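Researcher: Quick one. two chains, 786 residues in total.
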Amino acid sequence: MSHVNFENIGKKYGDELWAVQDLNFEIKDSEFISFLGPSGCGKTTTLRMIAGLEENTHGKIYFDSEIVSDPLNGYFLLPEKRNVGMVFQSYAVWPHMNVFDNVAYPLKFQKMNKDKIHDEVIKILNAVDLKGLELRKSHELSGGQQQRVALARGLVMKPRILLLDEPLSNLDAKLREKMRKDIRQLQQEFKLTMVYVTHDQREDFQMSDTILVMNRGKIEQIGTPDDILNNPKSEFVTDFIRSGE
Amino acid sequence: MKKLFYIISLLIIVIVFIAPFVNLFIIPTLHDFALVLKNENTIKAIKNSILVSSSVGGLCILLGLPLAWILTRTDLPYKNIFRTWFCLPYAIPPFVGAIGWIILANPTSGILNQWFGLHLNIYSFTGLVWVETSFLFTFVLLSSLTILDHMDSSLEEAARLSGASGLRVFIDIAIPLLKPAIISGFILSCLATAASFGIPALIGGPARIYLMTTQIYTYQRMGTAEGIQMSIALSAILGLTTLIILYGTQYFFGSNKNFTVGGKTSRPSLVKLGNLKIPILTTLVLILFIIFILPIFGVLLSALSPIQGSWNISNLSLSNFSRVLFHTEETARALGQSLLLGFLAALICTFFAFFFNYFIYRTKWIGRDFASIALSLPFSTPGTILALALIVSFSRGFFGFGPSLYNTLWIILLAYIIKYLSLSLKTVGDGYQQIHPSLEEAARISGASWLAVMRTIYLPLLSSTLMASSFLVFMPVLSELTMTILLTGPGLETIGPLLFQFQEYSDVGGGGAAVLSTIIIAFIFILNFTLKTLSNGRYGL
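Model:
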């Protein structure tokens, strides 16, 4: 697992429009951090910049001491070289592959032999409660099961960082509760550095170690869940937390 | 890697899709234009083109629009069967219809004239307009059907609740809402008529009615330097006019998306035809019979009749087939070469569309919009002009570089690819738009390079789309006539020009053209049926 450093990160469209601006923060090793904010605040853009799916136009991003993006010097590490796992809001379970092949996919790029791939996939599928569903296709799975496939696919590659983009927003309330617990448990079991994006003001963020509140492309506040709840630094944070009650 | 592919694609587009046309349009000097415009034949051809095109355009609207409305908004029985049958002429090459009508209604031995004592003469202005209309109305029909299927039917339902009858709803609500479709349908069928070659050559030729396309062909076949100059100048005139009309109307009337379209495809409440049901049903069957069944019957009868001109159902034989297929050396070569060219064109178009659509829909690189326009232009450019542009730019190597492509199968293949690539791009592009980008991103994150993503994610997900794209290119290429006839030469036979040759001089009395027409129709039916079955009805008619 790695820690991540954002140094003066910005992303600008055209001449005037900043998607995100002046982002300075650190994600520690094995930390569970949540990006919180209303839709359009730049939290998903920030997450995708860690993955390399979006390019920042300003500043530098570090994984440990290694630079992964430095537009000033024209350096950009492609997403397939970053070893980052990601769970998408839409799950992105490939419909033309079964559960096993979906989860095995990242391992095919790691020069691993077939038996080893099989063992690793089965191990992860057990960990996310998908035992026995190896041969199902995505359309034969429930929303919660697809979510677990996406999670398993992110975990199987032993990523430096695991990113989750509003992973629970398409699930019903009861399932959310269970998934939330499972995710936290997996994070602690695997000692994952995990970034979790959510706009849910109530419960989602309270399981994390650190919370980063964003608004209009900028950071409003960074702190523990207690800090955010008890010592909101701005009116925006106060309002945003309260509006969920 | 990705960027390299993109840059190579852009280069190909500039070399093959832009340079030849620009070249064709800048070659003629003012003197050439003056020369061609002073020629009496040119003026006649231009007049004829305008007259025939606007008549066909008007008739296509009159036929296609009410038909589309009846087939979507009324409780007529067997609507889906009618839909399929009325759309079928779209897939059949128009010159096959011309052959059919020549057999049915030529003044000396037409079947209809012989059997019913009529005095029809297909070699006339009316004949020309009729045969063009009987194929091109499908342009209007297909586009109106698509729009009516997606148009918010509550607009019409509100009119019915206000007390309007079925016919009033059609006139007061449907027609005004369909106005953009009517205008573009009119323009499209006009331009398609002006661009057509097969029907005017086969029917207009004997009637001495030349359109611009057939006149360009005549000039080019004169073989003299002056003839070539005149054909190029007339092509430039036709090509530029087409472009101006096409983009002018788009500019003035806006794009087709201006009218009210509901997002949901609600099931419209159907207009009850009541007492009119039987008369309308009978009329539709009759129209279908005349437009579609009759000419195909003519072709079949001629193909199976040992003596052309004495038509008798009880005296049929396969002697024409055996003569044309086994005792005419060009036939086997033409069939083989058409299949080969169709296969190659389908493969190359689909391959290119697979990669280039990625750049169009998955990147924001500069030049995409420009490239998509450049790639779609040839499809609306008359084939005659496209062929001439290629002859001018490739006959001495590419602007002087490399070997000459003139009189080779390569230039024919190139013409097919340029003309029909747009079909592939559209089909595969629709496929890309249905794939969520996160499916690619998940693969990138998992460690897959761009090429690995193309191979393991897009290729399997798009497989049915890619197959459809191949079929959609293969079908028109198989029997292409307009461009091939200008590019072909001895030994380069393909089905379309061979049929033309049979009909014009080498097998006039033997029904050879009808035999080839039958083979083409059989091919089209099999291919269309295969495509429809393989794609579960998503593609094909």
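Residues 156 and 173 of chain B are 6 Å apart (CA to CA).
Researcher: Thanks, that's what I needed.
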